[in-house]
Specification:
With 411 residues, the protein is α+β, with helices and mostly antiparallel strands. It folds into 2 domains: 279 residues, Lipoprotein localisation LolA/LolB/LppX (outer membrane lipoprotein receptor (LolB), chain A); 100 residues, TATA-Binding Protein (2-Layer Sandwich), CATH 3.30.310. The protein has 7 helices and 18 strands. The strands form 2 sheets. It has a 12-stranded mixed beta sheet, with helices on one face. A 6-stranded antiparallel beta sheet has the order 13-14-18-17-16-15.
């Protein structure tokens, strides 16, 4: 099917779409606490041909996603992430598991294990049965890590270390575990309203089109393309393959303006929309496994000496006198942390680091200068950060030049 560029189509007769809660568009592949990493993601698979499907506008395709009521599925997902960072498996193992034997952490703690998904290629096995039962397993060559949500309980198990981690599932405002939150007043309540609002939010900064068709995991799909219109963003294109029958996103590909391989390309290599067996979500720690209870662990919220980064405060109003504000809008938004009036350390901080640490800083960051002064840009393929010698930080999914320009113009 040829690309369809009628991005802002407002055809009224979309037929068959009735009032449903817009919240139901969320695909349950976002299972067991890895929503941010896996929702709508697809595998790095070659397409098996472009199926001939009826043409849809971007609005009609977004309505189809919003109308999807998929809550039960199982399958395999392949995730490849290339941010330009080193493989973080070793770091992930050290975050929670290094002192697990001393009772200060757990090798099965999701905070440590899921870090590995930010680099490299990983195969996942996923299953979902509504909002109360989900499971995702990260499959390694000789080990498996599983995260299971079943009603009131969340279990994690690492077969390599024979450690388990247990926590109670978060509860909603009604006190019931695993239930959906109600939509706020004024939120869209039909797929059509959701699609119209999404396209309105895209506005002048974003081009949303239906760009042909594809096959993913053996299923026919439409390709939704979301591109920045602004220059200066590191995002070139976001592509989502949407199942033609169910409206379920099967594929997500994030492309960078630097070209080359996708920054993220992950998702289904196999998918089944039948209800998984109830036993899929059962878990009992194996004999001899070390079990860590989440409520027995000390965390940053209980540590009076933990640094305060202003988390939980209104964005743009940092804590302890540190200002955080947003420069620009849309795809080229940049967060500025700190102000020009901040007092730098003696010698602009250059004399405060030991030679080894300064050498590491020099190797990681590229020196830049401008009317703002001097600083270093720390880069990935998606997010870049400029740290100035006067103590300010500028960060965003923008180019190095955009960061320098923002620093030059900052007040």
């Amino acid at each position: 099917m040829a690309p369809n560029d009628t991005a802002q189509g407002t055809t009224e007769g979309t037929g068959g779409v009735r009032r449903r809660k817009a919240a139901r568009y969320i695909v349950p592949v976002a299972v067991a606490g890895v929503a941010a990493a896996t929702i709508g993601l697809v595998p790095a698979l070659a397409n098996a041909g472009d199926p001939d499907l009826p043409q849809l506008t971007a609005q009609e395709l977004i309505e189809k996603i919003a109308a999807s009521d998929t809550e039960q599925l199982s399958g395999n997902v392949k995730i490849t992430t290339d941010l330009g960072l080193p493989n973080l498996d070793g770091i992930a193992k050290s975050l929670g598991g290094a002192e697990g034997g001393k009772g200060k952490g757990s090798g099965a703690d999701p905070q440590a294990q899921l870090t590995k998904l930010v680099s490299g290629t990983h195969t996942l096995r996923v299953a979902a049965d509504g909002p109360e039962r989900q499971k995702v397993s990260i499959l390694d060559d000789a080990a498996e890590y599983s995260l299971i949500h079943n009603g009131d309980d969340v279990w994690a198990y690492d077969s390599a270390s024979n450690e388990a981690f247990h926590a109670k599932a978060p509860k909603d405002a009604s006190g019931k575990p695993g239930k959906r939150q109600k939509l706020p007043e004024g939120a869209p309540t039909t797929p059509k309203e959701f699609a119209e609002q999404a396209l309105k939010m895209a506005g002048k900064d974003t081009a949303v089109t239906v760009d042909g068709t594809a096959q993913v995991a053996g299923r026919d799909a439409y390709q939704l393309s979301v591109k920045p219109k602004q220059s200066g963003s590191t995002v070139a294109d976001i592509r989502v393959a949407v199942d033609a029958k169910t409206g379920t996103p099967l594929k997500f590909t994030l492309l960078s303006t630097d070209g080359g391989k996708p920054v993220v390309e992950a998702g289904f290599t196999k998918v089944d929309f039948a209800k998984p067996a109830a036993s899929t979500f059962d878990f009992t720690p194996p004999k001899g496994a070390k079990v860590t209870e989440a409520d027995k662990l000390d965390g940053p919220k209980n540590d009076k000496n933990a640094p305060d980064f202003g988390l939980g405060k209104e964005f743009g109003k940092g804590g302890k006198g540190e200002d955080v504000k947003v420069i620009g809008q849309g795809w080229t938004s940049i967060a500025q942390i700190g102000t020009k009036s901040a007092k730098p350390a003696a010698g602009n901080g250059k004399d405060q680091l030991p030679p080894q640490a300064q050498g590491l800083m020099d190797s990681l960051g590229a020196k830049v200068s401008g009317s703002f002064g001097e600083g270093r840009v720390f880069s990935t393929r998606l997010v870049n950060a400029l740290m100035t010698d006067d103590g300010r930080v500028f960060v965003g999914a923008v180019t190095k030049d955009a960061l320098v320009k923002a620093a030059n113009e900052a007040k």
